[in-house]
Design a protein that fits this description.
about 160 residues, two-stranded antiparallel sheet, alpha+beta, three-stranded antiparallel sheet
Length: about 160
């Protein structure tokens, strides 16, 4: 056995079966024990709408729903996910009014934060938006927008909430 093939054997992680439900579809894949949910979604399932930006759970670009709650998929071990996962791809129809309001009001700019913003917005819209704008801003604060579209994002949420 060559040194190169021995090296490959040493660094190859053991793969384990992973059962996960994503966007209403049960899936079974093999994954490394330390695989992050983001990597499973993008690399194994081809759901590339969820973005990685910081890789540390600080920016919100990777936000998905697990059991209806927002989760930062770049810092969530896939192996511990037992509840259904919803990604931006699974929220296409439900998020349409918010996406239209974002487009009308200029909330979409570079687009990198957009998927995470939409997913977080769906949590708030499903629960009913807080009446106070400061509370609403705090609820959205985990989703950073490099283009500073915050006012437009909050205005879009208010427009959809009133509709």
């Amino acid at each position: 056995m060559s040194a190169a093939s021995l090296f490959m054997i040493v660094i190859q992680p053991d793969m384990e079966p992973l059962a996960i439900t994503v966007n209403g579809r049960a899936r079974e894949i093999n994954a490394a024990p330390g695989a992050m949910l983001l990597n499973i979604l993008r690399d194994e399932l081809g759901l590339t709408g969820t973005k990685e930006a910081c890789g540390r759970g600080e920016c919100g670009a990777c936000t998905v729903l697990v059991g209806g709650r927002s989760v930062l998929s770049c810092v969530t071990l896939a192996a511990v996910v037992t509840e259904p996962v919803e990604t931006i791809e699974g929220l296409v129809t439900e998020s349409l009014p918010f996406r239209e309001a974002m487009a009308d009001l200029g909330g979409f700019q570079c687009g990198y934060c957009t998927a995470g913003v939409i997913v977080q917005a769906m949590v708030l819209l499903r629960a009913g938006l807080p009446a106070d704008d400061a509370v609403l801003a705090k609820e959205m604060a985990g989703n950073l927008c490099r283009c500073t579209g915050y006012r437009a994002i909050l205005a879009a949420l208010r427009r959809v909430d009133r509709a």
